[in-house]
Design a protein that fits this description.
single chain, alpha+beta, six-stranded antiparallel sheet
Length: 188
Amino acid sequence: ESDAERYKRLVEARNAELTDAIKTLARRMVVELGIDNTNTRVTVYLHRDDDEVFVPMARYSTNPQWAKPGRGAYPDSYGAIASTWHKRFHVNLKYPPDEAEWVKHVGAAEGVPREVAEAIRMKSVCIAGTRLDHDHHCVGVVIIESIKSWTDEKLQDRIEAEDDDFATLRDTAAEIIYIVGNSFSDVQ
Protein backbone atom coordinates (compact mmCIF):
# COMPACT_ATOMS: atom_id res chain seq x y z
CA GLU A 1 0.00 0.00 0.00
CA SER A 2 2.80 2.44 0.77
CA ASP A 3 4.45 1.63 -2.59
CA ALA A 4 1.17 2.42 -4.38
CA GLU A 5 0.83 5.71 -2.51
CA ARG A 6 4.45 6.66 -3.24
CA TYR A 7 3.98 5.81 -6.94
CA LYS A 8 0.85 7.96 -7.05
CA ARG A 9 2.70 10.91 -5.46
CA LEU A 10 5.59 10.53 -7.93
CA VAL A 11 3.21 10.48 -10.90
CA GLU A 12 1.31 13.49 -9.57
CA ALA A 13 4.55 15.44 -9.01
CA ARG A 14 5.84 14.58 -12.48
CA ASN A 15 2.54 15.50 -14.09
CA ALA A 16 2.50 18.83 -12.19
CA GLU A 17 5.97 19.62 -13.54
CA LEU A 18 4.95 18.66 -17.06
CA THR A 19 1.76 20.73 -16.78
CA ASP A 20 3.85 23.74 -15.72
CA ALA A 21 6.04 23.15 -18.78
CA ILE A 22 2.93 23.06 -21.01
CA LYS A 23 1.70 26.35 -19.55
CA THR A 24 5.09 27.92 -20.27
CA LEU A 25 4.88 26.65 -23.86
CA ALA A 26 1.34 28.04 -24.18
CA ARG A 27 2.57 31.46 -23.05
CA ARG A 28 5.48 31.30 -25.47
CA MET A 29 3.11 30.36 -28.32
CA VAL A 30 1.03 33.54 -28.04
CA VAL A 31 4.18 35.63 -27.60
CA GLU A 32 5.69 34.01 -30.70
CA LEU A 33 2.52 34.74 -32.68
CA GLY A 34 2.49 38.36 -31.45
CA ILE A 35 -0.97 38.06 -29.85
CA ASP A 36 0.02 38.11 -26.18
CA ASN A 37 -2.54 40.63 -24.95
CA THR A 38 -5.45 40.88 -22.53
CA ASN A 39 -7.97 39.87 -25.21
CA THR A 40 -6.38 36.52 -26.02
CA ARG A 41 -5.95 33.18 -24.32
CA VAL A 42 -4.49 29.84 -25.28
CA THR A 43 -5.54 26.46 -23.91
CA VAL A 44 -3.73 23.17 -24.42
CA TYR A 45 -5.91 20.06 -24.26
CA LEU A 46 -5.13 16.36 -23.90
CA HIS A 47 -7.46 14.06 -25.83
CA ARG A 48 -8.83 11.07 -23.91
CA ASP A 49 -9.67 8.45 -26.56
CA ASP A 50 -11.47 6.23 -24.06
CA ASP A 51 -13.91 8.99 -23.03
CA GLU A 52 -13.92 10.92 -26.33
CA VAL A 53 -13.22 14.17 -24.52
CA PHE A 54 -10.57 16.85 -24.27
CA VAL A 55 -9.11 17.60 -20.85
CA PRO A 56 -7.57 21.06 -20.37
CA MET A 57 -3.94 20.70 -19.33
CA ALA A 58 -2.89 24.37 -19.32
CA ARG A 59 -4.44 27.74 -19.99
CA TYR A 60 -2.67 31.07 -20.34
CA SER A 61 -3.84 34.65 -20.72
CA THR A 62 -2.49 37.94 -19.42
CA ASN A 63 -6.11 38.66 -18.44
CA PRO A 64 -6.92 36.83 -15.17
CA GLN A 65 -10.59 36.54 -16.20
CA TRP A 66 -9.67 34.53 -19.33
CA ALA A 67 -6.96 32.53 -17.57
CA LYS A 68 -9.45 30.95 -15.15
CA PRO A 69 -10.15 27.25 -15.63
CA GLY A 70 -13.35 26.29 -17.39
CA ARG A 71 -15.03 22.92 -17.62
CA GLY A 72 -13.06 19.81 -16.64
CA ALA A 73 -13.71 18.11 -19.98
CA TYR A 74 -14.95 19.09 -23.44
CA PRO A 75 -16.63 16.66 -25.85
CA ASP A 76 -14.69 15.93 -29.02
CA SER A 77 -17.87 15.94 -31.10
CA TYR A 78 -18.59 19.65 -31.68
CA GLY A 79 -17.18 23.15 -31.71
CA ALA A 80 -13.87 24.58 -32.86
CA ILE A 81 -12.13 21.95 -30.75
CA ALA A 82 -13.74 19.13 -32.80
CA SER A 83 -12.98 20.90 -36.07
CA THR A 84 -9.35 21.25 -35.03
CA TRP A 85 -9.18 17.59 -33.99
CA HIS A 86 -10.63 16.27 -37.24
CA LYS A 87 -9.06 18.68 -39.75
CA ARG A 88 -5.73 19.31 -37.96
CA PHE A 89 -6.22 23.08 -38.17
CA HIS A 90 -9.15 25.39 -37.52
CA VAL A 91 -9.05 29.11 -38.17
CA ASN A 92 -12.10 31.36 -38.05
CA LEU A 93 -11.35 35.04 -37.65
CA LYS A 94 -14.92 36.22 -38.16
CA TYR A 95 -17.18 34.93 -35.40
CA PRO A 96 -20.07 37.38 -34.79
CA PRO A 97 -19.33 39.95 -32.05
CA ASP A 98 -22.98 40.06 -30.95
CA GLU A 99 -23.59 37.46 -28.20
CA ALA A 100 -26.94 36.20 -29.53
CA GLU A 101 -25.58 35.94 -33.07
CA TRP A 102 -22.47 34.18 -31.73
CA VAL A 103 -24.61 31.54 -30.01
CA LYS A 104 -26.59 30.98 -33.22
CA HIS A 105 -23.41 30.83 -35.32
CA VAL A 106 -21.57 28.23 -33.23
CA GLY A 107 -24.76 26.17 -33.08
CA ALA A 108 -25.32 26.21 -36.84
CA ALA A 109 -21.70 26.08 -38.03
CA GLU A 110 -20.09 23.92 -35.35
CA GLY A 111 -22.92 21.95 -33.77
CA VAL A 112 -22.53 23.45 -30.30
CA PRO A 113 -25.74 22.90 -28.32
CA ARG A 114 -27.50 26.18 -27.51
CA GLU A 115 -27.28 25.77 -23.72
CA VAL A 116 -23.55 25.05 -23.96
CA ALA A 117 -22.95 28.05 -26.26
CA GLU A 118 -24.87 30.35 -23.94
CA ALA A 119 -22.81 29.20 -20.94
CA ILE A 120 -19.43 29.81 -22.61
CA ARG A 121 -17.84 32.80 -20.83
CA MET A 122 -15.42 33.83 -23.59
CA LYS A 123 -17.42 34.34 -26.76
CA SER A 124 -14.39 34.77 -29.00
CA VAL A 125 -14.51 36.54 -32.34
CA CYS A 126 -11.28 34.85 -33.46
CA ILE A 127 -10.42 31.20 -32.85
CA ALA A 128 -7.42 29.33 -34.21
CA GLY A 129 -6.62 25.74 -33.37
CA THR A 130 -3.94 23.23 -34.20
CA ARG A 131 -3.93 19.53 -33.44
CA LEU A 132 -1.06 18.10 -31.43
CA ASP A 133 0.48 15.05 -33.08
CA HIS A 134 3.38 13.04 -31.73
CA ASP A 135 5.00 10.03 -33.35
CA HIS A 136 1.92 9.39 -35.56
CA HIS A 137 -0.44 9.73 -32.59
CA CYS A 138 -3.08 12.45 -32.30
CA VAL A 139 -2.76 13.50 -28.67
CA GLY A 140 -4.51 16.83 -28.21
CA VAL A 141 -5.17 20.32 -29.50
CA VAL A 142 -4.15 23.91 -28.87
CA ILE A 143 -6.95 26.48 -29.07
CA ILE A 144 -6.05 30.16 -29.30
CA GLU A 145 -8.93 32.61 -29.03
CA SER A 146 -9.58 36.31 -28.71
CA ILE A 147 -12.51 38.61 -27.96
CA LYS A 148 -10.98 41.23 -30.31
CA SER A 149 -9.99 40.71 -33.94
CA TRP A 150 -6.40 39.84 -34.73
CA THR A 151 -4.74 42.13 -37.24
CA ASP A 152 -2.09 39.72 -38.53
CA GLU A 153 -3.46 38.26 -41.76
CA LYS A 154 -0.59 35.75 -41.87
CA LEU A 155 -1.57 34.23 -38.53
CA GLN A 156 -3.19 31.20 -40.20
CA ASP A 157 -0.02 30.50 -42.19
CA ARG A 158 2.06 30.74 -39.02
CA ILE A 159 -0.22 28.35 -37.11
CA GLU A 160 -0.10 25.81 -39.96
CA ALA A 161 3.66 26.13 -40.59
CA GLU A 162 5.79 23.05 -40.10
CA ASP A 163 9.23 24.60 -39.61
CA ASP A 164 9.21 27.79 -37.57
CA ASP A 165 9.43 28.67 -33.88
CA PHE A 166 5.68 28.23 -33.34
CA ALA A 167 5.86 24.73 -34.89
CA THR A 168 8.72 23.87 -32.53
CA LEU A 169 6.67 25.00 -29.52
CA ARG A 170 3.63 23.06 -30.81
CA ASP A 171 5.69 19.91 -31.33
CA THR A 172 7.25 20.20 -27.88
CA ALA A 173 3.79 20.56 -26.32
CA ALA A 174 2.64 17.48 -28.28
CA GLU A 175 5.52 15.44 -26.92
CA ILE A 176 4.78 16.47 -23.35
CA ILE A 177 1.04 15.79 -23.80
CA TYR A 178 1.94 12.36 -25.17
CA ILE A 179 4.03 11.62 -22.06
CA VAL A 180 1.36 12.95 -19.68
CA GLY A 181 -1.34 11.06 -21.56
CA ASN A 182 0.37 7.74 -21.00
CA SER A 183 0.21 8.13 -17.23
CA PHE A 184 -2.83 10.41 -16.93
CA SER A 185 -5.24 7.59 -16.11
CA ASP A 186 -2.87 6.26 -13.45
CA VAL A 187 -3.53 9.32 -11.32
CA GLN A 188 -7.30 9.19 -11.65
